[in-house]
Amino acid sequence: MRVILLGAPGAGKGTVAKLLTDFDGSVQISTGDILRGAVKAGTELGKKAQGYMERGELVPDSLIMEIMEARLQEPDCKKGFILDGFPRTIPQADALKKLLQKLNLKLDLVVNLDVPKEVVLDRLTTRRTCSNADCQEIYNIKSKPPTADGKCKKCGSKVVQRDDETRKPSPSAC
C-alpha cells in the first residue's frame, strides 16, 4: 500500500501510520525521520541537510526531494510506504508527483485527517517525546503514558514535552 497521510500536527497521522504499517508491512516515512537518518548516516545529502538544520533554517525542498527519492528506493519500501505529513506544501506535492512518475510508483490513497481544533490541542499538549535522538518514542500522558518517573519505556531516557506542543497564552490574555 502506498499512502499519503495529511493533517494538522497532532491530528493522529503517526498513530494511523503505525496501525497501517502493522497491518500490511509497509514502512512509515516522515521527512523529519529521513532527514535525521541521513544526517546520522553521514550521507552526502545528510551532510548538506545538516548545515541547514544546524543554522536553524528550513531544508530546501530540492534537497528534501533528493533525500525522499533515495528513501523511496530503499528495499523496505517495496512492500509499500506511508508518507506521514508529507508533502506539506503545493510545491512539494508537485515535486512528489514528478518523483513518483520518475520512479514508476502509483499512490493508492491520500487521506486528510480532519480533526477538530480542540482535539488536536488536547493531543499536542498531552504528548511527550523521548529525549533520546535515536529513539524519539512518542507518549501521551492520558492514553499511552511513559513510566511513572517520566522515562521512556523503550530506552529509559527522559521523556520531554516539546516547546511547540504547549498551550501559549493568546496575546489578548496578557
Short account of what is shown:
With 174 residues, this protein is α/β, with parallel strands linked by helices. It is 39% helix and 16% strand.
Describe this entry's structure for a reader:
The protein is of the alpha/beta class and 174 residues long. Helices cover 39% and strands 16% of the residues. The chain has helices at 13-24, 31-41, 44-54, 61-72, 90-102, 117-125, and strands at residues 2-7, 27-29, 81-84, 109-113, 127-130, 138-140, 159-160. The strands form two sheets. Strands 2-3-1-4 form a four-stranded parallel sheet. Strand 5 (127-130) and strand 6 form a beta hairpin. Helix 2 (31-41) packs across helix 4. The longest helix has 13 residues, at 90-102. The chain is globular and about 50 Å long. The model has no long low-confidence stretch (mean pLDDT 91).
Distance between the termini: 49 Å
By DSSP, the count of extended strands is: 7
Low-pLDDT parts are none
Largest sheet features: 4 strands, parallel
Alpha-beta content class: alpha/beta
Order of helices and strands: EHEHHHEHEHEEE
On the 0 to 100 scale, the average pLDDT is 91
How much helical structure, as a percent, in the residues? 25-40%
Gross morphology: globular
